[in-house]
Amino acid sequence: MADELVSNKNRKNVNIELVAENALLLSWQATISLTQHHEIISLQALITEQLDGLVVESLVSYHCLMLYFRPQLITNTEIIAKINHLIKYSENSPNAKVNEADCIKIPVYYDTEQQWDLADVATRCNLSIEQVINQHSANIYHGFALGFTPGFCYLASLPKSLHLPRKSSPRTKVPKGAVAIAEQQSAIYPIESPGGWHIIGQTPLPMYESSHGQFNATIKVGQNVQFYAISKAEFFTLQQGLKK
């Protein structure tokens, strides 16, 4: 496979690499950038439209786009040439714009009773607990990538006043619905799992649905998210309502 690897940079400095016999990895500058992410999403939509039947699946992350294609229908050289053509075409096309109305509202019970990290985050950020809650919930986040566990969406960017490194000793068990922060990001744990982010609250909303073989994430890449504070009583009322 090594001698088959293809690396190519075009005018937009997008690196194209053949990483499997049926997969191309396109990578941009390794940074968290909303403008660059809109560019990646726009190119993904263009490729999906123009190369339908050749490209069968695509996945977006912070600064990468993975494309799976049908090698029985097109050679490596041909698919890379087509991708480069579309990248060049996209230089003169407007990027995808965020629909401000498409903002998912996530209720959060910001909690200090469960020995989570809200009080510790406040202390380490030199803020009051109320200031942490207000700053976390006032911000609008962008869904950059899905990963780690099904429905886990990496959201950025967290206000700089709340930036903390990941915990030096991750928890072996984080509850379903835990709302957490780390570095520039916030996220919600969809299922009980290990985790090294700082837990500041919990939402009763599920982060995905799965039925009849179909998986549907609550937060999708490219969507906007805003959190809002609810009381403990509201948390349990919503949780019970969702179980019915």
**From the alpha-carbon coordinates, what is the Rg to the nearest angstrom?**
20 Å
* Number of E strands: 16
Succession of helices and strands: EEEHEEHEHHEEEEEEEEEEH
Outline: elongated
Q: Segments where pLDDT lies below 50 for 5+ residues?
A: 1-7
Largest sheet at a glance? 7 strands, mixed, barrel
Mean pLDDT across the residues is 90
Helix content: 25-40%
Strand order of the largest sheet: 6-13-10-11-8-7-16
Give the end-to-end Cα distance, rounded to a whole number of Å: 52 Å
Q: SS-based structural class?
A: alpha+beta
Put simply, the count of helices is: 5
Question: β content, as a range?
Answer: 25-35%
Walkthrough of the structure:
The chain has helices spanning 34-50, 76-90, 118-124, 129-138, 232-243, and strands at residues 7-9, 15-20, 23-27, 55-60, 64-69, 103-110, 141-146, 153-156, 171-174, 178-182, 185-188, 193-195, 198-202, 208-211, 214-217, 224-229. With 244 residues, it is α+β, with helices and mostly antiparallel strands. The strands form four sheets. The protein has a seven-stranded mixed beta barrel with strand order 6-13-10-11-8-7-16. A five-stranded antiparallel β-sheet has the order 1-2-3-5-4, covered by helices on one side. Helix 1 (34-50) crosses helix 2. The chain starts with 6 loop residues before the first strand and ends with a helix. Mean pLDDT is 90; it is low at 1-7.
